[in-house]
Design a protein that fits this description.
about 80 residues, mainly alpha, elongated, about 60% helix
């Protein structure tokens, strides 16, 4: 089992959207200038290594027509950190 929370979350949201990472990367490249293109392997490696930029996460979320929302922790969660 993969303990990488970024990978799990992106994989789950891809499944919900019905898109593949390949489709998402193709869309990313359509939205980017030619000198800032990426590859499926590059994004996949960044996800697995947990080195993906927050801006890239936002870009993926936008393509999946999703928002990232920050919520305040409940008191029980704060004490467990």
């Amino acid at each position: 089992m993969n303990s990488n929370p970024i990978h799990r979350e992106i994989k789950a949201n891809l499944a919900r959207s019905g898109m593949t990472l390949t489709e998402v990367v193709k869309q990313m490249n359509l939205n980017r200038p030619k000198d800032n293109q990426t590859t499926i392997q590059n994004i996949s490696n960044k996800i697995m290594r947990e080195t993906i930029k927050y801006s890239e996460i936002l870009e993926i979320a936008d393509i999946l027509n999703m928002n990232i929302q920050w919520t305040e922790k409940r008191k029980e969660e704060v004490h467990n950190v």
